[in-house]
Specification:
It is a single chain. About 50% of the residues lie in helices and about 10% in strands. The longest helix is centred in the N-terminal third of the chain and has 23 residues. The radius of gyration is 27 Å and the shape is elongated. The protein starts with a helix and ends with a helix.
């Protein structure tokens, strides 16, 4: 094997494994609360709250009375918004307050059969990349090490 090929195998293995790990860590659930600034965009499902005030943000300007936030029901939406309003009563809506609101949303999701788990399951492309990348790292490392053994220099004293 040429030197470039063994390093290419090692590099590709590292990239594949890294991508598989990062993608595998991406957790997700549809029962999410997003905190945005005024005028921020809404791109995912879930509830959108103002990150400073905790107030519900209407993402659809076409119907200002529409309070839907799939997959939350109207009652569940009211519970989450009521908690955010209660926590923001003192004029501050801190990161700890936001964490409590997110926790309520996740508990509602879990009660509805949507546990907070990774969306990607075994056998997904990310999982296969990870499982393929590990042997490539090992193979590339072993081949690189075998191709470059440490050569001992002859002792000059013994040559005399």
């Amino acid at each position: 094997m040429t030197g470039l090929l063994r390093w290419a195998i090692l590099g590709v293995g590292i990239l594949m494994t890294g991508y598989g790990v990062i993608a595998g860590l991406a957790h997700g659930t549809d029962y999410e609360v997003h905190f945005i600034t005024q005028g921020g965009s809404c791109v995912d499902v879930g509830i959108y709250l103002n990150q400073r005030t905790g107030e519900l943000v209407n993402c659809d300007d076409s119907n200002a009375d529409d309070r839907s936030a799939p997959p939350f029901t109207d009652e569940e939406l009211d519970r989450v918004v009521a908690l955010a309003d209660h926590l923001a009563q003192d004029g501050y809506f801190t990161g700890l307050d936001q964490a409590q609101v997110v926790g309520l949303a996740h508990s509602i999701g879990a009660a509805n059969g949507d546990p907070y788990e990774p969306k990607k399951k075994a056998g997904s492309a990310d999982h296969i990349l990870f499982l393929t990348g590990i042997p490539m790292i090992l193979l590339g490392g072993i081949v690189a090490a075998a191709a470059n053994p440490r050569r001992r220099r002859p002792d000059r004293r013994s040559a005399k």
